[in-house]
Amino acid sequence: MDVVAETDSVSRENGDGSHGQRRVGLLYDDRMCEHYTPDGDYHPENPNRIRAIWKKLQSAGIPERCVVLDAKEAEDKYILSVHSKNHVNLIRNISSKQFASRRNKIASKFNSIYFNEGSSVAAFLASGSVVEAAEKVAKGELSTAVAIVRPPGHHAEQDEAMGFCLFNNVAVATSFLLDGRPELGINKILIVDWDVHHGNGTQKMFWKDPRVLFFSVHRHEFGTFYPANDDGFYTMIGEGPGTGYNINVPWENGRCGDADYFAVWDHILIPVAKDFNPDLIIISAGFDAAVGDPLGGCCVTPYGYSVMLKKLMNFAQGRIMLVLEGGYNLDSIANSMLACTEVLLDDKPISGSSDGYPFESTWRVIQAVRRELSTFWPTLADELPEKLTSQKAPHPHILISSSDSDTEDDKGSKFVPKNLEDVLQDVIQPLSKLKVNEDSHDQVDATSNSWRSEFSTISIWYATYGSNMWKPRFLCYIEGGQVEGMIKQCFGSMDKTTPKEIQWKNFPCRLFFGHESSHSWGPGGVAFLNPERNTKYNTCMCLYRITLEQFNDVLLQENGLSYDIESPLFDLSALKTTTTKEFNFQEVVKGAWYGNAVCLGKEQGIPILTMTCSPSNIERFKYGKLPLHAPCEAYATTLIKGLVEGKQLSEVEATAYIEAATKPL
Ligand SMILES: [Zn+2]
């Protein structure tokens, strides 16, 4: 049957003629692409996000099978039910001519916000669209709906835009159904926020409201992950009549994947949803916990999202809405949204599989949440059987060690590396239950370590210009451990021999600070080096004589990689070429923040190597395409300690030296 996707039609029957079956509403509008950075600079929350999703759904023939809805601007009265008048007025007027000269200044007063001429219309459309779709689902005109909207909403608070969010779209629609259209009979709403960040705005808006069960699973890391406060902790359970109706599942670490999310669904969300018995479910569907996301650092697959969604469709008579929040890898968000939409269309069984177990930290968090909430949800009162909780992947910090950089594109493995079982045995939890291929164990062990013996005979100088200038901090990368100010432990190198020799040297290059936060230090920039020779600058570096094998392991840790590698990061012949010329680059970890080894010359005939970001990122830093960020206090203090204890600078000089490095390139 020929069906033409007319995106401008208001609504129509299912194209495949499946009347009476699942009617899935689909909402997308190009006008929401009018919100973008005023200077055209790259920003992860950009119009291509929703375009990519729409294109993917179109190429899969999805719109023809859905009821395509038109976007509508939200009426003030609905937005005002969760936002202040001041805030609504600001967003309404921010795109007008009279605000043009002040727009950037106003945006800078908020946390992670930009405005342009298209921001107002996009914000009103995003909220209005979710309201529109929610009404149709509540009325039963649609079974379910997917709202591909931006700007996202869940960080937006009552009186404040925040974290790329202008209006809290999901909260506006929730309040609209409960208070604006009580005759539709929607009295209890479950909001499931699976965006990798905590839905701080939504939490606050329904904090005391028992009609809304707000559930958020997010990276928290003890308050260091954005929005970097305690609001997302599991002890935040609501207040007054809303006590017990706010559930946070705060991950202690990144790298959580399908197995971790499924465990939370099975042992927290689904039992509670059964008891709460919602009339409608709205998913704050950010896809930044998806594998490949540059900000999220988690590993949820499209299959994982399908399963999570499918499990929720058993409630509220299937009345469920997906509302886009974050998600910044265009392929990941498009594939994930496609997988979810196919589940809503209910046309085929979910295919795929997920191996592996949850992290130990996942079980710890699940048990803490269950204990905290068991008085309100008796179904959570039982202790989980040990048989279940003993099924765990090794601690992520051991495989993915502490690092000064977030690895942007590494997918990581959470299974124990085949060649490492013996090495890790005495440091981590009993490994007997882990998925280790016993048969191939010896064989892999023998072959994969051969490069190590070769690399252990090659000496290099590792030139450090960041926190590693302080010897006790650097030794964490060799011996393992953690020093004051660090929020994560390092695993150390395979070879734990301390450096043979240490010396200091100055180099004519520019030191600078970039990146928003790091695994080791939390929010704040970390040091990078522009290795171009420029006699205007004098960067003080501490050189450690270690082996190439150890340098390889330091690079793994800096870039958040596991030891599960069959071959070294370095190509020895390429390394020889790198070391023939000063300031030569070799990319050793593709796309990672410290993925480039640079030769700074030789000392006593031994090459001096350091690590920094790619030449293209250095250009981006130079021209402001990537933001510079001053270091956090703990990180700066460590650098200063290194310079002072290394007898290079006085404390006053060291402080000024760090301060100078925060200037634009
Ligand atoms: Zn997010």
The tally of helices reads 22
Q: Ends: how far apart?
A: 60 Å
What coarse outline follows from CA principal-axis ratios?
globular
CATH topology of the largest domain: Arginase, Chain A
Q: What count of domains describes the coordinates?
A: 2
The mean pLDDT is: 86
Catalytic activity: N(6)-acetyl-L-lysyl-[histone] + H2O = L-lysyl-[histone] + acetate
GO molecular function: histone deacetylase activity, hydrolytic mechanism; metal ion binding
Cofactor: Zn(2+)
Family: Belongs to the histone deacetylase family. HD type 2 subfamily.
What order do the helices and strands come in, and which of them pair?
Elements: E1 24-27, H1 48-59, E2 67-69, H2 76-79, H3 85-93, H4 103-109, H5 119-139, E3 144-147, H6 169-180, E4 189-193, H7 200-205, E5 212-219, E6 246-251, H8 258-276, E7 280-285, H9 302-312, E8 320-324, H10 330-345, H11 360-373, H12 386-389, H13 396-399, H14 421-424, H15 441-448, H16 450-455, E9 459-464, H17 471-479, E10 502-507, E11 510-514, E12 517-518, E13 522-523, E14 526-530, E15 539-547, H18 548-558, H19 572-580, E16 584-587, E17 596-603, E18 606-612, H20 615-622, H21 633-645, H22 651-660
Parallel strand pairs: 1-2, 1-3, 3-8, 4-5, 4-7, 5-6, 7-8, 9-18
Antiparallel strand pairs: 9-15, 10-15, 11-14, 12-13, 16-17, 17-18
Cofactor: Zn(2+)
GO molecular function: histone deacetylase activity, hydrolytic mechanism; metal ion binding
Keywords: Chromatin regulator, Hydrolase, Metal-binding, Nucleus, Repressor, Transcription, Transcription regulation, Zinc
